[in-house]
Amino acid sequence: MPVFTTKLYDNMRISQYILRIGIFFILLTAVLAVQAQEENMKTLFDLNHLLDYLVAAFLISVFVMILVIYFREKKVKEEAERLNAQLALIMSANKSQVWTYDIKQNKFTTLSQEDLQETLYTPYEFSQFFEREDFDMLRKVIEDIKDGNLLTDTITVRGAVPKDDPAKEQRLYEVTISILSRDRHEHPTVLVASQCDITEEHAVAEKTNRLMKRYQTIFNSSQVDMYFYDADGFLTDINDKALETFKIPDRKALMEHKIYINHVPAFKDIDISQISPMFISSITDIDKHKREDEKIPDIRLGGKNYYETNLKPLRDKDGNYQGVVIAGRNIQSTIRKRCHVSWSNA
Fold first, then answer.
1. Which of 150, 260, 286, 328 would disulfide-bridge 144, Cβ 3.0–4.6 Å?
2. Other Cβ atoms closer than 10 A to 138
């Protein structure tokens, strides 16, 4: 029986012994009381009669105890099987495994996910499941908990690659170790560990990190101004080129001001919930807006700004709106060149 239901079973057995003793004395008293009503109290404690009473009480108590033990142990077994089934289901759903470490015996015990069968391992045998340095980390945590320096700890360890299949993917585990039982002096006797396979989750996280680094590299190295507004319409990212264009000295301070997309004069009439791909050209008198309707105090650019932008909404695979990416550029120099060419031709 797995170690987790053994304690429940032991507690039930203790209560059974107490119950047996109680039943015996209750039955003995009942037999004596019934007999006392039928016979003279002077003969009640006659040695021959008393022996008969004791034998009868013993036989009755044995019969009753057999029935009680049968039904109680059946109930304990059913409860243990129910708990084991729940534990196996949880372990399977979470891709996890449970193992224990007996400090006194210096043995590791694993529980299979299918039927919770126990398998014992020596420290050397158990170490073969992990990379050597990672198993050393496990032993360090075990020693710290055993010495009272820790109550519980969670670490990430690598599984060992099978020597007969070196091409097999290495697994990654998150292991949480804590105390399962103590002795009468409150010293840990058995430790329990929950070992969860996080290989796939770690791979997804690594891929996300790589994509984010690639995004940041492309976003910040772009030769045009780039902005990202989230689904609620707030600015969440801006590249270095845009900061340079509008002479914004502090990216962090800009983000703390919670810039809403409608705070930008060229986008003041945009409905964020109905946004669609669009191209916008605008002429903004920045000095006038600073005097009359200051919404972005971080901008240090002045005068009239000739600007064109390309807006593209982002949606997930289900079509849910996630935000909008905006690419823009200052076309003031282009306008001036056109005007100069037109004037020269005239």
1. 150
2. 24
How far does Cα 267 stand from its chain's mean position?
A: 41
Q: What is the pLDDT of residues 31-74, one digit of tens each?
A: 555 555 555 544 545 555 556 666 666 667 667 777 777 667 76
| Residue 296 near residue 257, CB atoms below 8 Å | yes
The DSSP bridge partners found for residue 312 are 325
**Among 32-41, 96-105, 117-126, 263-272, whose mean pLDDT is lowest?**
32-41
262-276 burial string, b = 16+ CB within 10 Å, else e? ebbbbbeebebeebe
53-59 long-range contacts (CB < 8 A, ≥24 apart) are 53/28, 54/28, 56/31, 57/24, 57/27, 57/28, 57/31, 58/24
Q: At what angle do helices 47-93 and 3-38 cross, to 10 degrees?
A: 160
Under a CB-based contact definition with an 8 Å cutoff, are residues 88 and 114 in contact?
A: yes
Q: In terms of Cα–Cα distance, which of 206, 3, 193 is closest to 98?
A: 193
Q: CA dist 309 to 85, 227, 296, 330, 338, Å?
A: 60, 10, 18, 9, 19
Q: How confident is the model at residue 250 (pLDDT cuts 50, 70, 90)?
A: very high
- The model carries a pTM of 0.50
